[in-house]
Amino acid sequence: MIFHNPSGAPELACEQCGCRWFDRMHGTCYECGSQVPAEAIAEFDRALQAFWAKNAGQEGSAAVPGAKPPADA
Question: Which domain of life, per UniProt (predicted)?
Fold first, then answer.
């Protein structure tokens, strides 16, 4: 599940419990232990790329302070 934080950036949440904390080494939710499906990660990646594209060129954008998209974005 993807939602947008107050700055408009997408955040990935667990499909089972809604938690936003994931063990990235094991691909599981810290709260309930559910596996994060590959489809959810792919959907989040697309939302993140769209967010970066939308905010590209906005000098001094406060949407994600200090964050820079990857070179291939």
Answer: Bacteria
Residue 10 CA: distances (Å) to CA of 3, 42? 6, 13
Identity of the residue numbered 44: F
| Buried residues in 15-47 as b, exposed as e (16+ CB within 10 A) | eeeeeeebeeeeeebeeeeeebeeebeeebeeb
Is 31 in contact with 21 (CB distance < 8 Å)? yes
> For position 28, what pLDDT does the model report?
92
pTM over 0.85: no
